[in-house]
Amino acid sequence: MARKLGIFVIADEVYAHLTFGEKKFVPMGVFGSVAPVLTLGSISKRWVVPGWRLGWIVTNDPNGVFHKTKVVGSIKSYLDISSDPPTFIQGAIPQLIKNTKQEFFDKTIEVLRQTADICWEKLKGISCITCPSRPEGSMFVMVKLDLSCLKDIKDDMDFCCRLAKEELAVVLPGCAVGYKNWLRITFAIAPSSLEDGLDRLKSFCLRHSKQK
């Protein structure tokens, strides 16, 4: 489609290294000969350092379209005028890349696989929440909130605010990312903490559920 329309592809692949499902992840860059691809990566996701606003842009363009159209030059010009990351982050990056062993990445994937399974299984026991599919990557899952099962909850924002107040558990309302009456639940935490949080979520839903 991109080749037909004469446009390039921007591939946001910040979670490319955090996949653990049965289906192998295929980066868009392998299709660079079909249409030029700009791939975005992130330190904060790959190395699990939330808030470190630093990443990279990779061009996958064997036909040289980006250079011919001066796209690369435009990107470099923009980076020259944009604000730089904090100096302590810049200073840490060389050692971070040099000294991080493969065992760290393997352990991260294994923990995420374990907590994703915990999340998937425990959400099955909460009637007002539906998880469309088992998580196979990333650090969070989007779940559908069924308000018809709840007696006094207006929407996803109301749900999250009251959950935080009553159970001291925090989830992100879907409206914050454009999905009204959905919830975003992270599973990038210790298994025991995740289980406790999901138990609190279930207790909250039971307390506010309509009596049958």
From TrEMBL:
The record's listing under Gene3D superfamilies reads: Aspartate Aminotransferase, domain 1, Type I PLP-dependent aspartate aminotransferase-like (Major domain)
- What residue stretches are annotated with the Aminotransferase class I/classII large domain? 2-201
Q: Which residues form a coiled coil?
A: none
Entries under Pfam families matching the protein:
Aminotran_1_2 (PF00155)
Recorded superkingdom: Eukaryota
SUPFAM superfamilies from the UniProt entry: PLP-dependent transferases
Per UniProt, which keywords does this protein have?
Pyridoxal phosphate
Q: GO MF annotations for this entry?
A: L-tyrosine-2-oxoglutarate transaminase activity; pyridoxal phosphate binding
Q: A single GO BP annotation from the record?
A: L-tyrosine catabolic process
InterPro entries per record: Aminotransferase_I/II_large, NHTrfase_class1_PyrdxlP-BS, PyrdxlP-dep_Trfase, PyrdxlP-dep_Trfase_major, PyrdxlP-dep_Trfase_small
Family from the record: Belongs to the class-I pyridoxal-phosphate-dependent aminotransferase family.
Please name the PANTHER family in this protein's record. TYROSINE AMINOTRANSFERASE
**What's the protein name?**
Nicotianamine aminotransferase A-like
